[in-house]
C-alpha cells in the first residue's frame, strides 16, 4: 500500500511543458506554467478533514525546503475523492470536479529533483514523494519539518516517481489510482499510435488479443508470412491531459476489410492501395469517426507491436502498421522492460510506402472509392 496520511495519498503531478498535452488546471483560458498541479486522492472509506494541512517542497534546491500552500478551512475529502492544488490564484474546481482547489503560495515546479511533503501540522505526521534524482532533497525536507514540529513523524516510506521528460510527458501518476506504481501518464499530442485493448491480431494459431502478445510470439504479416514480436509496448492515456488526442478512431465492421469494429489512435497507419494512411485522415468517411470524449474512459491503455522492421500486420482483419519509433519508446509505461531485453533503443527506417497524415491529403479518387465501398461493406455486414 502507498504511504497515506489518514488515507490521503499523492496521486498525480502535472508539469506544463510547451507543446505537451496538459489541461488548463486553473480555468483561466490559458495553458501556462501556472497550471502546474498536484492531485491528492482519498483511499479511505471515510471523509477526511484536511483543513490546515500543508504542502511543502524543495523547489529544485537540496538546501531549501519551504511551504507551498496551506489548505483552506472547511476542506474535506469524501471517500474515494480527489483534491488538487494548482499554482494559480483563486479557487477552482479540481480536475475531477469533486471539490474546491486552492492557490499555492508560489510556483509548484513539479520536477525530477523535487521532494514533496503533505504535512499535518496538528499531529506532526507527514508523507513524502520525490523524483528519482532527489535523494538529497529528501533529507533536507525531513530536517525542515523536524525543525518546526517537535514530534514530526514520517508515515510509511518515501515514494519515488519516474523522471519527467520534456519531450513527451505532462504528468506522472499512479498507474491505477491508489497503486504503488508511478508512470509517465500523458503523452505529447499525437505521440500515441497504437491499438486499443482487445484488438485481435492475426497469428499462425488464430487471432489473439493484442494485450496478450509477448516477445517471441509470431504474428501474421498482411503481405504473407510471419514476423516475431520483439516487444509489446503499453501506454497509459490520461484523457483529461491528452484531450482530443485521447479520442480513438472508430472503424466500423466491414470498413477497410475489418471483420469487427477496430479502434486505433489517430496517428496509427493503415495500409490501403500501397499507401499508409494515418487513421485520423479517414475520419468523416462513412463508418469512420472519433469516439466522443464522454465515451472515453478516464484512463485507458493502448498497445503497439514491435517487430524486427517497420511492417504491416493484420488487426481485426485490417492491414495495420507495427511500431515505428517516431517518438521513441520512453512514452510507453513498460520502457524499462524494453531496456532489460535489448539494453538500448534501436532506430530503424520507416517502410517505403508513402504516408498520408491528414484528410486534405487523401486523393479524391481514393476518398470517393472508400466512401462508396464503406457504405456497401457496412450494408453487407449489418
Amino-to-carboxy terminus distance: 48 Å
CATH superfamily of the largest domain: Hedgehog/Intein (Hint) domain
Instruction: Identify the CATH class of the largest domain.
Output: Mainly Beta
How many domains in all? 2
Give the % helix: 10-25%
- The geometry reads as elongated
State Rg: 23 Å
Count of DSSP strands: 29
Instruction: State the CATH topology of the largest domain.
Output: Endonuclease - Pi-scei, Chain A, domain 1
Largest sheet: 6 strands, mixed
**Assembly form of the protein:** single chain
Low-pLDDT runs: 18-24, 89-107, 186-191, 374-382
Helical stretch count?
4
Major β-sheet strand ordering: 8-7-2-1-13-14
Strand content: 25-35%
CATH architecture identity of the largest domain: Beta Complex
How does the helix and strand content classify structurally?
mainly beta
Mean pLDDT: 79
Domain LTD: 1-143
Protein name: Intein
Organism: Roseicyclus mahoneyensis
Pfam family, one: Hint_2
Amino acid at each position: 500500500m502507498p504511504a497515506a496520511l489518514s488515507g490521503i495519498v499523492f496521486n498525480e503531478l502535472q508539469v506544463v511543458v510547451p507543446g505537451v498535452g496538459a489541461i488548463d488546471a486553473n480555468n483561466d483560458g490559458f495553458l501556462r506554467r501556472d497550471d502546474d498541479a498536484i492531485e491528492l486522492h482519498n483511499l479511505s472509506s471515510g471523509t477526511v478533514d484536511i483543513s490546515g494541512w500543508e504542502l511543502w517542497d524543495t523547489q529544485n534546491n537540496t538546501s531549501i525546503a519551504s511551504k507551498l500552500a496551506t489548505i483552506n478551512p472547511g476542506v474535506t475529502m469524501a471517500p474515494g475523492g480527489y483534491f488538487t492544488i494548482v499554482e494559480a490564484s483563486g479557487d477552482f474546481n479540481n480536475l475531477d470536479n469533486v471539490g474546491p482547489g486552492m492557490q499555492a503560495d508560489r510556483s509548484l515546479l513539479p520536477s525530477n529533483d523535487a521532494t514533496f511533503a503533505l504535512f499535518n501540522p496538528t499531529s506532526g505526521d507527514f508523507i513524502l514523494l520525490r523524483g528519482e534524482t532527489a535523494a538529497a532533497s529528501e533529507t533536507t525536507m525531513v530536517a525542515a519539518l523536524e525543525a518546526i514540529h517537535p514530534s514530526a513523524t514520517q508515515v510509511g516510506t518515501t515514494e519515488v516517481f519516474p523522471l519527467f521528460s520534456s519531450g513527451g510527458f505532462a504528468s506522472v501518476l499512479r498507474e491505477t489510482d491508489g497503486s504503488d506504481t508511478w508512470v509517465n501518464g500523458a503523452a505529447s499530442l499525437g505521440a500515441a499510435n497504437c491499438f486499443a485493448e482487445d484488438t485481435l491480431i492475426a497469428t499462425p494459431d488464430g487471432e489473439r488479443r493484442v494485450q496478450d502478445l509477448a516477445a517471441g510470439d509470431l504474428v501474421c504479416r498482411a503481405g504473407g508470412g510471419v514476423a516475431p514480436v520483439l516487444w509489446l509496448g503499453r501506454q497509459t492515456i490520461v484523457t483529461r491531459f491528452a484531450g482530443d488526442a485521447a479520442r480513438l478512431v472508430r472503424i466500423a465492421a466491414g470498413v477497410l476489410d475489418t471483420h469487427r469494429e477496430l479502434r486505433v489512435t489517430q496517428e496509427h497507419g493503415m495500409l490501403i492501395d500501397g499507401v499508409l494512411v494515418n487513421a485520423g485522415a479517414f475520419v468523416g468517411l462513412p463508418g469512420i469517426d472519433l469516439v466522443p470524449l464522454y465515451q472515453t474512459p478516464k484512463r485507458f491503455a493502448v498497445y503497439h507491436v514491435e517487430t524486427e522492421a517497420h511492417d504491416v500486420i493484420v488487426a481485426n482483419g485490417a492491414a495495420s502498421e507495427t511500431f515505428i519509433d517516431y517518438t521513441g519508446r520512453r512514452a510507453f509505461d513498460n520502457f524499462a522492460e524494453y531496456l532489460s531485453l535489448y539494453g538500448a533503443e534501436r532506430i530503424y527506417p520507416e517502410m517505403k510506402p508513402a504516408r498520408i497524415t491528414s484528410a486534405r491529403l487523401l486523393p479524391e479518387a481514393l476518398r470517393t472509392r472508400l466512401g462508396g465501398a464503406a457504405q456497401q461493406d457496412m450494408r453487407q455486414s449489418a
